Amino acid sequence: MGVKEKIRLNLPIHLTDTFDFGKKHPGKITEDVICSDPEYIRWCIDEVKGFELDKQAYTLFDDMLSECLMSKASGNISGDDMDDDRWRE
Fold first, then answer.
1. Which of 7, 78, 84, 87 could form a disulfide with 50 if both were Cys (CB 3.0 to 4.6 A apart)?
2. Segment 19-45, tens digit of pLDDT
3. Are 62 and 78 contacting, i.e. CB atoms less than 8 angstroms apart?
4. In whole angstroms, what separates CA 74 from the centre of its chain?
C-alpha cells in the first residue's frame, strides 16, 4: 500500500510503504526516504495531516535525523523537538 492511501485511511506508515505523493521522492520506499532525507520526513510529520510512522519507521527516522543534525549542526531542527508520541503501532 502506498503512503497516500495510508494517510487517507489514517494508518501508520511502514518502512516498506511506497511514496506515491509529492514530487520530491516518488516511487521510493519509506526506508529509503528516511535514510536519504530525514528532514523531509520531519516536514511530513509536521505538515501532512495523517502522516504517522509506525514504531520501527519512527525509530529509524529518529536515528537518522539525529545523525543528520550532528553532521550539519544546522540548529533548524533539534533533537529536543522529537515527540515520541508521533509513532503508532
1. 7
2. 998 899 999 999 999 999 999 999 999
3. no
4. 19
Residue pair 56/14 in contact (Cβ under 8 Å)? The answer is yes
CA–CA separation, 52 vs 45, rounded Å?
A: 6
In this prediction the pTM is 0.75
Helix axis angle, 38-47 relative to 55-72, nearest 10°?
A: 120
**Containing domain of residue 71, as a range?**
3-88
Alpha-carbon distance 68 to 14, whole Å?
21
> How far from chain centre, in Å, is Cα 5?
15
Domain count, the chain: 1
- DSSP lists the bridge partners of residue 88 as 54
Whole-angstrom distance, CA of residue 50 vs CA of residue 4: 10
47: its cell numbers: 505538515
Give CA–CA dist 85/68, Å, rounded.
21
Output the CA–CA distances (angstroms, integers) from residue 12 to 48, 75, 82, 89, in the order listed.
Answer: 13, 28, 17, 7
